[in-house]
Amino acid sequence: MPKAVRFSTYGGPDVLQVVDVPMPVPADGEVLVQVMAAALNPGEIGIREGVFAQIWPAHFPEGQGNDFSGHVVEVGGTGSAFAVGDEVLGFSPRAAQAEYVVVSSGVLAHKPATLSWEAAASVAGAGATAWASVAAVKPQPGETVVVSGAAGGVGIIAAQLARLSGATVIGTASSANAAALEDRGIVPVQYGQGLRAQLERMAPHGVDAFIDTFGRGNVALAIALGVPPNRINTTADGAGVQQYGVHSDAQEQADSPAIWGELAELAASGALDIPVGAVYPLERVADAYREVATRHGFGKRVLRIRP
Predict the structure, then answer these.
(1) Which of 71, 154, 185, 201 has the smallest CB count inside 10 Å?
(2) Which residues neighbour 18 within 8 Å (Cβ) at sequence distance 6 or greater?
(3) Are 200 and 192 in contact (CB under 8 A)?
């Protein structure tokens, strides 16, 4: 029997188990994918802990993981745009961390052959969230954009996409990640005390747009810097959205295989880097989430389902 991640009660990473599950069977319009890699995202921690139980309740035993990459191994019915053997990437809520997943063919994109499984698994979640964040603030050539948490899985992609628009991008991060940002054309700045003064010195003509992927006061900081609310997007500060009326666009606003395919092609061409900071086997899913929870790693954390 194939294996999948499940949890049967809310709690910390120790509630996660890798268990045997029945082989899923695709219906008409669906495909069965043998998963090669599945990404991990901070929001999944809140779901597993019950933080979002009022709006996204778990149905025990609950699966986990959303974005993945793999091979099509079976096609249900006829008329699918995918065939057995196709390399794909996609999004399957609370099901992706498994050896096999059944999804509608409408939520898959083709994976470029030169893109790694790990990078491809990060496209439909972190990549789409970054895309939506950048689209919300509409950076223009010659403008200055600040990205908070620019070394994280979403932030590093958003910062590069903003830079591809022609903007100068300043990324907040720890000093340990400064060189990695510079290597990708992003101007690093140390987060923490004195950040506002640093940004004012670095952008003497003002900050035009602000993408917040970290929360913890960054929306208020953007407002203090004079950034208009319609040029601010946050994926991590719901209170800031309510208080200031800023954007909160994320994966849902880029839930499109066409966008995923474009991101994947950018990554395959070398125009966009999707860095993977650590890869774990499926059996170490709890350890992987412990690292994600620190919010200090560079790039994405990914489960490699098959060698």
Answers:
(1) 201
(2) 3, 4, 5, 6, 282, 283, 285
(3) no
CA 207 to chain centre: 25
Q: How far is CA 243 from CA 223, 247, 283, in A?
A: 11, 11, 42
pLDDT of residue 78: 81
Residue 89, C-beta contacts closer than 8 angstroms, at least 6 positions apart: 67, 68, 69, 108, 109, 110, 111, 120, 121, 123, 124, 260, 264
Quick one: which of 213, 156, 208 has its CA closest to 185? 156
Structure-token match 């903007």, residue found: 167
Which residues in the chain come in under a pLDDT of 70? none
C-alpha closest to that of 67 among 157, 147, 183, 146? 157
CA atoms of 269 and 287, how far apart (whole Å): 32
pLDDT at 221: 98
